[in-house]
Amino acid sequence: MENKHRKNTIEIDKDKFRFDVDVYIFKEEEHLTAYCPSLDLATTGTNFQDAMKNFYECLQLHVECCMEMGTFEEDLKEHGWKVSEKKIVPPSFRTQLRNRQLSSLLQSNTNYERISAPVRIAAHA
After folding, report:
1. What local confidence, expressed as pLDDT, does residue 124 receive?
2. Quick one: how far is CA 51 from the chain centroid?
3. What DSSP letter does each residue of the chain carry, written as one string?
4. DSSP-assigned beta bridge partners for residue 121
């Protein structure tokens, strides 16, 4: 039976992590904000490309820092991810809705776009 979370499951190769995360893009004043509730990371940019470029840089730095400190797995678990030896699964949308920022965004009149952002990160610090 195929895992329905397959596209959201982190695949662990010998040298990299591959996974997708949902990123919400919304306009705040003169900037766009890229917000990832499953990792509680946010960045801004003057346009979509800039916001996403900044998001990927922020994500890379966050993961590298966690890996250097040996806290990557702990950080994921704190954000509701399920971690096992063979796979890492992000929190469900229902679990993510417990996050006040996401819940507020979705209940506001703010226009936003949700995208599935592919992530590829080296598995070493």
Report:
1. 57
2. 14
3. ---TTGGGSEEE-SSEEEEEEEEEEEEETTEEEEEETTTTEEEEESSHHHHHHHHHHHHHHHHHHHHHHT-HHHHHHHTT-EE-SSEEEPPPHHHHTTSHHHHHHHHSS--EEEEEEEEEEES--
4. 17
Reported as a single tens digit per residue, the pLDDT across 70-125 is 998 899 999 989 887 777 788 888 888 887 888 888 888 788 899 998 887 766 54
- Tell me how far apart the 2 most distant CA atoms of the chain are, in Å: 47
Nearest CA among 32, 41, 55 for reference residue 102: 41
The radius of gyration of the chain's CA atoms, rounded to the nearest angstrom, is 15
pTM, two decimal places: 0.79
Residue 91: both structure tokens together: 């929190």
Rounded to whole angstroms, how far apart are CA atoms 59 and 40? Answer: 10
Q: CA 44, 49, 50, 52: dihedral to nearest 10 degrees?
A: 50
Q: How confident is the model at residue 46 (pLDDT cuts 50, 70, 90)?
A: very high
Report the alpha-carbon distance of residue 124 to residue 107 in Å, rounded.
39
